[in-house]
Amino acid sequence: MNFSENSRVWVYQANRNLAPEELNAIQERLDAFTASWEAHGKVLKAAAAIQYNRFIIFMVDEAQASVTGCSIDKSVAVLKTIEQEFNLSLFDRMQLAYRNEHGIQVCSKATFETLIATGLVTENTVVFNNLVQTYAALQNAWEIPAKESWHGTLFTKTSA
To answer: What is the pTM of this model?
Structure first.
């Protein structure tokens, strides 16, 4: 499916890596949901993908039909069900993801600030900006150096 750069996206970060059997089961659920996802009776041009065994990304191209509050609520309900069934946390926005030499790491905001203070995380550390809202931003501003993300504000906080 081709999606416009203006397509809306939502990024949900799991609190742990998903096992291979979980990936398949969750992807099947996401595919079934997006195939029938509607807003006010209109089918949405939508897709969902799991990236890096940890991030669930929903995308809707609103050129065909606009997403609504009710349709967003339906996607959240699907994720809540997945959370319960697979013992996950997908809505903890205070867990920050970044890359280091060992791969993708996730920690609390407080721990991230400690890593900044000790120099283990720098302004050039690649972080995941899960606040991106469009497909273009997902491609260009999701995995970026901390200094180019909202994470950059944490550096001024720890150096003050």
So the answer is: 0.92
